[in-house]
Amino acid sequence: MKKTQARMFYELPSRGRGEACTTGQPQGVGSEAYLHSTSQGPTPEDARKDGYIHGRSRRIREISGLLGVVVYILISVCPAWGQNATHLFNLGLESSMVNKKIHYFTKALELNPRLAIAYEKRGRLYYFQENYDKMMYDFYKFTNLRPSDPEGYRMLGLAQMRMGNLDVAIDKFSRAVELEPKLASAYGYRAEAYHLKGFPQKAIQDATTAIEIGTTQPTIGRAYTVRSKAYRQLGQEDLAAADFDKAFDLDPENYGYKYFTITNHLASFTNDSSYISPGDMRRLGLIGVLAVLAVLIFKLVLPTPRK
């Protein structure tokens, strides 16, 4: 028993010596003293690296916080802009006054410059006001936002034709036809541009296409009128008269008050567009108002006939 205890007492230090060797700690030296003797403490280089890391982390946190605020503002504000722009656009549609319509469409576009339909609606109003510069600005914006929509090019062609830029007008109508080969009105307007430019054969070809594919009476009626004038340019009076009669039957509101006879109609082919200008429309409206007033006055002044 004593031999066993002596052997255990002897072996314990030997294991301790082995452990001390594996850790590199000199035998007979305490662990705390060993650590103090080997540690050099933080160097200036370590302090510089720690400061850089902490400073960079702080900047990243600041930038992340700022981006979070910006994203929150955009998410919370942008839907409101879209809703307000739509609301103003709808107010423009509901208004019965042209100036009010333009006002609302303009306000809607200030909030949402990519609201293509607002450019289209406002541009049409400018067209009927004969404000072609503003009208073309709106439709160029419209075509930039909707390059595959033929309506923008058709309207630009109309404005260019009104301004006498026939080559540009023909290009715009041609682009509209490329995008929509069944757009009868674009063929009819291009036929008018060809007629004004002095190309009756091309005018007849386009007008005939508009007549064949047209789906509304006004569109077909206008095409007959253009073809009538083109026939007149070629000296084919009978064909011109026949086409004018068809145009009048199909669309009397546009032509009945302006051309009372085929002679008056054909005499104007050299300097007149086949389509009523917005100015003519306004003058016609004024004449109608005056006529109603005259009837009312006449009715009030004349005595009631006796039986």
Give an overview in words.
The chain is mostly helical and 307 residues long. Helix content is 79%, strand content 0%. The protein is built from 15 helices and no strands. α7 (150-162) packs antiparallel against α8 (166-179) and α9 (184-197) runs antiparallel to α10 (200-213). The protein is elongated.
Beta strands, count: 0
Largest sheet descriptor: none
Strand content: under 5%
Note the run of SSEs as H and E.
Answer: HHHHHHHHHHHHHHH
Radius of gyration: 43 Å
Structural class: mainly alpha
Low-confidence stretches: 1-26, 33-37, 75-82, 255-284, 295-307
In percent, how helical is the residue content? over 70%
Report mean pLDDT, rounded to a whole number: 75
Structure keywords:
elongated, disordered N terminus, 307 residues, mainly alpha, disordered C terminus
